[in-house]
Specification:
The protein contains 1 helix and no strands. It is an all-alpha fold. It has one domain. The protein starts with a helix and ends in a 5-residue tail after the last helix.
Length: 65
């Protein structure tokens, strides 16, 4: 009976190791998804914050100047 319990503990340890490995992969996947989302959405918005004022200034000037 003791050997049966030890065998079950070993199986559970292997399964827990596999779960840990899988969860670490998912954590890295979510981290890179967040980084790419920030790069694709937030950085262009910051760029627009600096570009739009100069664009609007060029629209407001009369054609002769």
């Amino acid at each position: 009976m003791n050997e049966d319990i030890l065998k079950r503990f070993d199986e559970q340890d292997k399964k827990l190791s596999a779960i840990l490995e899988s969860s670490e992969k998912m954590r890295k996947y979510f981290m890179w998804t967040l980084i790419i989302s920030v790069a694709v959405i937030v950085l262009p918005l910051i760029g627009l914050f600096f570009v739009l004022p100069s664009f609007f200034n060029s629209l407001m000037l009369p054609a002769g100047f």
